[in-house]
Amino acid sequence: MNTAVKKIFRQKSILFGTILFSFFMIMLLVSFVWIPYGYDIIFDGKSLVAPSAEFFLGTDDLGRDLFSRLLKGSQFSLGIGLVVGGISIFFGASLGLSAAYFGRRIDFFFTQIMNALQAMPSLLLALFVVAILGPSITNTIISVALVSIPSMYRLVRSQALVEMSKEYIQSAKALGASDKRIIFRHLLPNCATAVLVQSAVCCSEAILNTAALGFLGLGIPAPYPEWGTMLADSRNLMESAPQLMWIPGLCLLLLILSTQLLSDGFRDQLKRK
Amino acid sequence: MKLFGSFLKILGYFLFISLVSFSIIRLIPGDPVQNIIGERGASEEHVAEITKNLGLDQPIYIQFYKFAVNALTGNFGESIVTKQPVMSDFKVLWPATVELALVALLWSSIIGILLGTLAAVKRNSIWDYGSVSLSTVGFAMPLFWWGLIVIFFFAVKLSLFPVSGRVDVIYDIPYVTGFFFIDSLFSADKTAFISSLKYMVLPAFVLGTVPLALIVRITRASIIDVANEDYVRTARAKGLPYKVVLFKHIFKNALPQIITSIGLALGQLLTGAIMTETLFSWPGMGRWLVKSIEARDYPAVQAGVFYSMAIVIVVNWLTDECVKMVNPKMRDQQRSST
User: Fold this and answer.
1) Measured between CB atoms, does B144 come within 8 Å of chain A?
2) Does B313 contact chain A (CB < 8 Å)?
3) CA B300, CA B277: separation in Å to the nearest integer?
4) Angle at alpha carbon of residue A95, lines to A184 and B19, rounded to 5°
5) What pLDDT score was predicted for residue B1?
6) pLDDT of A104-154, one tens digit each?
7) pLDDT tens digit string along B228-249?
8) Helix B252-279 and helix B191-207, axial crossing angle in degrees, nearest 10
9) Chain A: nearest CA to B311, how far in angstroms?
10) DSSP at B62
11) DSSP A134
12) Nearest-CA residue of chain B relative to A210?
């Protein structure tokens, strides 16, 4: 391994974050290729079976295999986290860059909208969007993404404003470079680390909010096994089948922890530079 | 002049939050009148009557004006579910949430500041590592899962505390302030107070966890920051005992940041209240909001949007004022700029 990579991994939060996150990434990739029983197959008379050789983690109250549901659930929890991270990078970064670059009215306009979106706690905003649009997979993604775009916008905008005041941008302008060239060749690469840090934050917020919506019964609709929804279903079964409560929750905690460790680690790296 | 400026600001905020809550009912796909009638249909006169009752026959700016005026007087119309004015539902619910949030904030601030200070003072000790890892995990903890674990151990396994409601059903606490602690304390039956205390323990413990993580983290960071300042070294060099320096120099200067973190925590309490109240069947605003959204009870949702945004704005303003109060630097800065 080359030394630069070694140096990054010497930081414990990045090391642990990467290990945990890759574990869930592998889980996500496996779920596309192989799921032992299928997430919605009901085994009659085999409800609430304890973990055994046949059912690795046991079954739920309807007789569905918990391990299969857990695997499928990673597509929603982690999958939505990644998609929302991508969406917020795209919208947050492009709006933030253009606000910083063009300034004035565009800046004022976007900043006001983002301030308005941030005036509400994130889960509340997501709840209201679902209240308006109704619960479904797409609407969950929309509502969760809408919550995470403003934070990305703010960070990219402030970073880009710092870069804008530096001399190399002015000299690029003086040389007659086009807006497009300055934004993509100069501004964007210099804001990339900030985007990276914030996308990990957006990802963890998205995972948490998706699960929270699911837990309240307003997220991914049944029969899809989203981890938050699975937790909500386990509420009345915690005595008879505690694994239904422990396992999805533990997955959720470790997944969120891994993204937060990564973003903390990246932020420290950014500061050290 | 300053008064006029803040008046304008408040007016702007008010217009903004009423605009948002006003738009909600108009953003829903479909006709609100049809939504109310449902699938069974109604006669044309009935449709016209509902349209007129909702004020939908008037131009949109007049509708908004009326909504804003009504919102100012706390009139959000009738709830579709309970058929009661939304305000009268709301009046019973908000003390429950405020009581829960205050208790949660109180314990998490006290413990959080203590742990954070301890971690900063005894750097690289077990206390430090312990509180840092505690706050890292607490920050990542999905509140609803944490709630389930707490219920599992303290209510199901050990049956120490009750898990649903605010007080035992056998007690009929006369409704005076709506805050059960106060009401039950002044009622004839003193055991009602003990009962309401018992019901408070688990929800307040769960609700305070994420704020605790936040407060520990920021207290630790800001105290370490301040401890590196020159004036702290000077104070130590002139022979002041460490305890005096800690309280007189370090803690006082770290306070503005700690207060800001408590303000941030208040914002999280609002989100957390939704989860905690749903978990513990606590009859407060959060659970009411989720129920209204599930039932598509739009007048209630509108009121919920209006009040939650108002609360956030007021909390942010209060935090700023508190920070200004304890930090003369910021006070003077503002004075010189205006």
Assistant:
1) yes
2) yes
3) 17
4) 175
5) 56
6) 888 888 888 888 777 777 888 888 888 778 788 898 999 999 888 998 998
7) 888 888 888 888 888 888 888 8
8) 110
9) 9
10) H
11) -
12) B142
